[in-house]
UniProtKB/TrEMBL annotation:
Gene: PTCHD3
Biological function: May play a role in sperm development or sperm function. However, does not appear to have an essential role in spermatogenesis or male fertility.
The species this protein was found in: Esox lucius (Northern pike)
Tagged with keyword Transmembrane: yes
Protein name, UniProt field: Patched domain-containing protein 3
Stored InterPro entries: Patched_domain-protein, PTHD_SSD, SSD
UniProt lineage: Eukaryota, Metazoa, Chordata, Craniata, Vertebrata
Entry keywords, A to Z: Cell membrane, Glycoprotein, Membrane, Transmembrane, Transmembrane helix
Amino acid sequence: LNGLPPGSTIAMAKCHTDCIELPLRMCFREIGRFIGTHPWWFFIVPIVASIALGSGFYFLKERTLNDIEKGFTPLDGPAKKERTLVEEHFRPNESMFSTLRLTSDGTFACFVATSDSNILTVAALQEILVLDSKVRNLTVKFQGEQLKYVNICATVSGGCSSDAILDIIGYNASNIDVINLTFPIHPSKAGRVSLTATLGGVIINNNSVVQYAKAIRVFYYLQELNQTSEELNPTSEELNQISEELKQKSDTWLKEFVSYSTSKSRQWEFDRVPSAIVPLFSATFTITMLFAIVSCSRLDNVRNKLWVATIGVFSTGLAVLFSFGMLLLFNVTFFMTVSTTPFLVLGIGINDMFIMISCWQKTKVCDDVADRLADTYEKAIISMSITTLTDILALYLGYSSPFLSIQNFCIYSGTTILLSFVYNIVFLGAFFALNGRREANNRHWFTCAKIPEQRPPTQSQWYGVFCVGGAYNHDTGTEEELPMSTFFLKIYGPFLTLKWTKAFVVVLYAVYFGLSVYGCFILTEDFDLRYLATDESYITKYYDDEKHFSQYGPYVMVVINETLAYWEEEQRKKLILCIDEFQNQSYVDQNISLFWLNYFQIFANESGLHTNSEKTFKSTLHSFLEQQPMNRQDINLTEDNEIRSSRLFLQTVNVNTSKLQTTMLKGLRTTASNCPIKLLVYHPTFVYFDQYNVIVANTIQTIAVVSVVMLVISLFLIPNPLCSLWVAFSVGSVIVGVAGFMAFWGVHLNSISMINLIICIGFSVDFSAHVSYAFVASTKDDVNEKAVDALAQMGYPIVQGALSTILGVVALAFSDSYIFRIFFQIIFLVIVFGLIHGVAFLPVFMTFLTT
C-alpha cells in the first residue's frame, strides 16, 4: 500500500463492488417477504421432507465402511500398487508359511510379555510357556464344528509355525541357562534365526550374546483361508479370558505385564468408536439448546425469543436428518469420521440463527411481519452467505483429498451445511414469521394470550413480571437494545479504539503471530495406529509394549522386477552394487539380509559346483530349491524355467518415528529407482507410511485453493475490496495460529487433523466476515466510529456463535477416542482465535487502512 500513489488506499477503500451483493440482498428480501406471507407451508414441508428422507438411515449399517486401510491411507498410494505387483509375482506356499513373505499383516493373535527385570529367566519363561499352551489349546466354533488352533494354524513343513525363542529353548524353560542366545541373529539347526521381532529391550555383550531382555513377543498365525481365517480369529474376549485365568493362577510378574492383540483387533476397536458418540451428541445437543434458549431469552414476555432458539436448534437437527438420509439413499459411503459432522453443523447453524435474531431486532416493530422478515433477510443474508459458501466450498474442494475418510467427511459435511443454510432460510424463517405474528398481536410467549404493554395500576408487581410485555424503543421503532449490545457500543468499542489500546492490540498480535509461526516449524507428522482405538482399549497397552521392539524396523522386501542372468558375473556385480547402496543407508542394517542368491551360492560352493553357465545354474537351482523349499517362494519361475523376478529382504533399524519412516521410505524408493536393474521395495506398513508423503503437500494445497476461493467470494459479496483483503488476512492469520498452536498442544498433522484444518477456513471466515461487512455497511464517517458500530451490531452475535460452537463440541473433550478429542482441540483453537480476530484484531486493523 505504501507504494501506491497518494490517495490510492482511500480510493480502494471507497470502491464499492456491489454488482452481486446488491441483487443478492434484493433477491433474498423478496424471498423473505414471500416466506413471511405464507409461513405455514415453509414450516410444515421441511419437517415432512426430513422425515421422508430420514428413511435413508435404514441403510446406515449397509452403507457404513470403517476399513482402516481404505479410510486412512492414500487411495492411489504407491505401496498399494507395489503390493499388487508382489502378489502377482510371488504366490505364497501354504505349507511353508513365512511372516517375511506376507503382503499384508496376515491373520494372527499375539501377546507381549514384559518384565521389570530380565525376562530370560527360567521362572519367566515357564509362565510364558503356560500362556503359550493356553493359546494353543483354544477352541472356536465354526459352522457347528469345534476347531482347535492346530487345525487352522499356519504351517511350516507339516507343523504349526512356532515362536523363535520357544523353539530355541525347545519349549523347556530350564534350557535358557545353557544356551548362549545371540542377538539379533541366532544360529540354530534350522539356520540363522532373526530375533528382532521376538525379543525386545535387549542388552548384549561384545560377542552379541544376550545379557538382558525386557520383553518377548509371541505370534500365532492362522491359515490365510479368506472367510475361515476371518471367523476363526480369536476374539478380544477370548484372549482376555485367557489372560484373566492366568492372572488368577499366578502370583508372579506376569500378572501385570502381559498385553495382547490380534490382526483384527485394530479394526474391531475402531468399529467400536462410533458407539461412544451417541451419548456425547445427546449431551451436546442438550447443552447447546440450553445455551441458545438462555442467550435468546428476554425479560419481556412478548419479545422473548425462547421458541425461536429452540426451533433454531431443531432446524439444524432436521437438516442433518435430511442430508444424511438423502446421501444414504444415494448410496454414498458412510465413514466413521462423518460422526463429527452433526457437532460441526450444530455450531454453524446456531451461529446463523443468532445473526438472524440480531437483524430481526433491528427491524421496525410496527411494520408488517412479511416486511420485517424481508428486512431481516436483506440485512443478514450477506454475512450468512459468505460463511456458508466458504464452508461448503472448503469442504467440497476437500473432496479432492486422496483419503477416503476425508472425502466422506467433506461430502457429508458440505451437503449438511448447505441444507442447514436452506433450513434456516426456509424453516427457521417461517417460524420467525409465525413468532412475529404472535409479537404483532402482543401475545404472551408461553400462553399466547394477549397481554398489556404496561402494567395496569391495579395489578401487582408479579403481574408486571409475568403478564406484561411488548415494549420497544418508540424513537427508533425497533426492539430495545440488549445489555450485551450496549456493552459493545458504550464500553468495549470506545475502549478498543483508544490509541494506547490499539498499540497494545498490535503488540499482542505480534506475539501471537510469532508464536504461531514458530509452532508451524515444529509441527510434526504422525499417525500412530493407537489413535484409532479408545483409551481404554486392550490394544493400547499392547502398542505401549511394542516400543520395546522399536530398535529394529520391518524386514523390507526388495523385488528384482526383471528377468536377470544371475549366472553372469557382470549382472551379479550390478545387483550387488545396488544392494550395497541400500545397506549403506543409515536406516538399513549392513549385516542382516536374507537373499536366496547368497544361500544358493553357499550351496553351490559346498557342492563343488560352478554356476557361471546358464545350464549349470538352472540345474543347481533345482537341487537347491528341493533342499531349501522356503526360498522357492522368493523366485518367480516361468514355464521355461526362466527367473521372471525374485526378491530379497533387508532389515531396517531405528525407524520408530513418522519422520524417520518417511525418510526411510523415500530413501529406499530413490535407491531402487537409481539402480540400473529394475527394482521395487515393499512392506505392508508402507501402505500406511505413504500418507506422510502426501499429507503436508495436500493440506497446503487444499488450504491455499480454498483461501483463494474464499477471497473471491469476499470480493464479490463484501462491497469493499480492501475489507475483503482484511477478511483474507484474518483467515490466513487464524490458519497459521491454529497450525502453530497444534504443535504446542501436542496435536500432530495427519489425515484426522487435516479434516479439521479444512474446517478451519470456514469457521475463521465466520467472525471476520460478520465484522468486516458490518464495518463497510456502517453509515458512520469516522473509522473509529465504524469499528464501534460494527462491534455494536455484530459483537454479541459473534460471541454467542463462538460460545455455542464451543459448547457444541465441548463434550468431545471428554471422549476416550483420540479422533474426537482432536476434533475438539482444533475446533476450540479455531473458534478462540477466530473470535479474538473478530472482536479485537480485525476492528483495530481496519481503522488503520480503511476509510
